[in-house]
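Q: I'm building a small set of examples for a reading group on sequence design. Run inverse folding on the following structure and report the sequence directly after it, with nothing in between.
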């Protein structure tokens, strides 16, 4: 018969507490793992609004403890995850549950338990495995005033990006027990060398583009001011080619922005490199994406593509093919810079400060208004136009027609390179940072109506022309402010402080196609 070893504890109850974190949306929430062991029939219960993955942790914790050479108490074990009002989802509580059980049963010292938190998944063999949201957990440990965080070695470099806390990189549950019992700390995580901005620049360059003088100007303005851009044109005219080269014009991420982006990508499980996200994100979801996939949500709320594009570019190719609910769900994120997802009487905020670049065909066959014959009937044209609502289009700053380049354009040399245009964009962004110092806005595209009035200097002639366009019904009140923001970016590119008449005229032309000059005509 196999030998059975029973681990006995005293007749009185034994309690231990371990600090860990729950990821609530993209924010860390402190959680205390309280483990109580008392006499009674052997049982292991986890309470405190634990999700399915946390309930399954009981089997992982039991196997990990036994396979690490410890004894699993044959007593009544209750593990409480406090606060009980906060949902606990995911496998990141495995290590905390195991350490709490070892501490309560006297198999693990508690010298450091009150100053260190632990976050990680356990394998059946007792190894610590990485899980989503390590960077968020490290930020939570710093906010909670803890001395440090114990994480799996594979994600230690990510946790070490947060300044002000120590990070212990461990490989196994036994290593955690030795460290918490007063043993020597494990070697610190290796420093990760961040690639330079030049190393992370995309290989896509505007030197590949032929023709498209006006679309290139619109792309430069969109990059310089963080403005939303819609390009409309026949298939093969270069809309996607232009959009995919926008990241080559954008300024590098600041450290604060890179930490925000890395935290979102870590929670979403798409960040696997040890350091910060090196470049501004560029997200291009397929047109079959759902509304929750685009702006965030789901049964377990997760960041959507709009949040994954935070501080970067969200490219929607074939815009008219996206479902109407998905496109309408973008209206609030574009306007507010965040989206509120409500699930189970709880509201989660996901940041969505992105530059929207969209491309669409003018009709179903794609050739309306071009030099090729359009096969669409009038009802089909009307049905195609209705796919994009007026409120959505009103939130876009630049509406650009992209024509098919001529044969002469294809054989001509490049008009512009990303390097030269990027230098002008960086200079314009620097002017905006100086002008908007002390505000939450970082570029002209983030100005609200109040900041437009207080930070945009407009000459009288330009203001009168814009007023005539508004009185003629060519602009809404929102469109009025958006034209001013674009005109301000044009002035920044020309290194001027005040918005002139020609800046407003150019902004109107880029927003209203050919209607701009007629709308402001005397």
């Amino acid at each position: 018969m196999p030998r059975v070893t029973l681990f006995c504890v005293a007749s009185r109850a034994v309690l231990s507490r371990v600090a860990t974190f729950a990821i609530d949306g993209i924010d860390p929430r402190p959680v205390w793992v309280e483990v109580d062991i008392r006499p009674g029939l052997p049982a292991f219960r986890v309470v405190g609004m634990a999700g399915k993955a946390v309930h399954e942790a009981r089997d992982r914790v039991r196997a990990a403890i036994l396979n690490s050479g410890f004894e699993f108490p044959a007593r009544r074990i209750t593990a409480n995850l406090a606060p009980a009002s906060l949902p606990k989802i995911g496998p990141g509580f495995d290590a905390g549950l195991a350490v709490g059980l070892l501490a309560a049963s006297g198999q693990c010292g508690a010298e450091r338990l009150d100053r260190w938190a632990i976050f990680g998944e356990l394998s059946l063999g007792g190894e610590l495995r990485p899980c989503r949201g390590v960077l968020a957990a490290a930020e939570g440990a710093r906010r909670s005033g803890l001395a440090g965080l114990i994480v799996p070695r594979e994600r230690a470099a990510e946790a070490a990006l947060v300044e002000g806390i120590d990070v212990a990189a461990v490989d196994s549950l036994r290593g955690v027990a030795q460290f918490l019992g007063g043993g020597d700390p494990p070697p610190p995580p290796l420093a990760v060398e961040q690639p330079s901005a030049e190393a992370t620049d995309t290989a896509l360059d505007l030197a590949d583009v032929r023709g498209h003088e006006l679309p290139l100007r619109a792309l430069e303005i969109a990059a310089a001011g963080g403005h939303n851009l819609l390009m409309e044109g026949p298939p093969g005219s270069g809309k996607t080619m232009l959009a995919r080269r926008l990241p080559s014009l954008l300024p590098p991420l600041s450290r604060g922005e890179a930490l925000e982006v890395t935290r979102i990508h870590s929670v979403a499980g798409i960040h696997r490199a040890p350091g910060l996200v090196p470049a501004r994100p560029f997200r291009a979801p397929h047109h079959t994406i759902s509304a929750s996939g685009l702006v965030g949500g789901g049964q377990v709320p997760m960041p959507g593509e709009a949040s994954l594009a935070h501080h970067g570019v969200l490219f929607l190719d074939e815009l008219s093919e996206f479902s109407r609910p998905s496109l309408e769900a973008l209206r609030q994120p574009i306007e507010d810079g965040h989206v509120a997802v409500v699930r189970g009487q709880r509201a989660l905020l996901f940041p969505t400060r992105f530059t929207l670049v969209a491309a669409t065909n003018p009709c179903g066959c794609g050739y309306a208004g071009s030099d090729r014959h359009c096969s669409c009937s009038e009802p089909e044209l009307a049905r195609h136009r209705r796919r994009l609502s007026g409120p959505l289009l009103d939130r876009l700053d630049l509406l650009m027609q992209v024509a098919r380049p001529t044969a002469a354009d294809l054989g001509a040399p490049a008009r512009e390179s990303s390097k030269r245009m990027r230098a002008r964009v960086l200079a314009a962004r620097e002017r905006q940072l100086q002008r908007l110092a002390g505000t939450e806005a970082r570029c002209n595209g983030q100005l609200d109506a109040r900041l437009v009035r207080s930070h945009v200097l407009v000459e009288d002639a330009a203001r009168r022309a814009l007023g005539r366009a508004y009185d003629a019904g060519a602009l809404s009140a929102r469109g009025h402010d958006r034209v001013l923001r674009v005109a301000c970016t044009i002035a920044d590119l020309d290194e001027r402080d005040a918005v002139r008449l020609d800046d407003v005229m150019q902004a109107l032309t880029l927003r209203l196609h050919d209607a701009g000059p007629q709308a402001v005509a005397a």
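The radius of gyration is 28 Å.
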